[in-house]
Design goal:
five-stranded parallel β-sheet; about 350 residues; single chain; 13 helices; alpha/beta
Length: about 350
Amino acid sequence: MQRLEPGQPGPRLSVSAPEMEVLAAARGQKQLVLEFDVFRDGRGFSLAALLRARGFQGRLIAAGKVLPDQVRHLRRSGFDAVELAIGTDPAPWQKLDQIYSAAYQPGGHDRQVRQARLASRRDESLQALAARLNDDHADSPAEAILAAALLPELGRQAAAISSFGAEAAVLLHLVSRIRPDLPVIFLETGQHFFQTLAYRRTLSQSLGLSDVRSVQPDPATVARQDPKGDLWRDDANACCALRKIQPLQDALADFDTRITGRKRYQNRERAGLRPFEVINEDLVVNPLVAWTPRQIEAWITEHRLPRHPLVEQGYPSIGCWPCTRAVEPDHDPREGRWAGQAKTECGIHRPTRREPA
């Protein structure tokens, strides 16, 4: 990474500036300086990832309050250079720069090197790809993880999966900042709260999502297997298979990468999640895997995102109405899902056998 003197030419913006202002300032520029106002401010890394995802190919410079031990994250997010104040000892930067020499997203002047690396990975197995991405993005911000999965050079067909539940706004907000036209799959089970259906429309319009797809179970199969609509009473797993697992499997036939909002804190089964994994020969991306409830709440508040109307009524985790209950404020948020049962997951994220076409 280049180390530059203060006063570099080109637009200079604070990392606290709105992303639309930064994107507008970067348009047509060969060089852009992002000023970190506070040490370890993650917004600069997210902005860099967003700029690269939106096609900015100029030189991206970090300035202000940055530290040598951040060089790895600066590279991974897309920075090409760092502006050092006069009198700054360059030795620590040089030392750490040599240790962390791999770049997450090289600048425009590195395109040939980048293309050569990508060409050598064409035959890379999916498991190897997931392992490499996990290694590259072990400590990356959520937006950088998402941007990495959507790089055109990977040649993958991606879709996001959303329940439009209590925390869905965060993942969908990140999607809207990078690819508002990304397909978003919503499983319309026929048993959602009416508030969820209204929230899906409100949130989609608010974020400018242009390709939200409602996927329904096959009516004939429903009529045969659950004619009274009460299969959930006797066999919740069979109900999920009918109304969620099979419809999603069909909907994902044209995609090889799925993006989820799962997080480690949500239940024991998700505690070992990584940002990238392989399920059913598909790449699964979990940008929010390391987020905490406090981070979720802070993001929703900071960005003034619409909230699911049932949250304030005691529903911190929301699925279909027959299997969702309100919980006490000091209880586990997912305690209201399949209450009284050993079931903790609907099963859409577990490996399933695909029938041959």
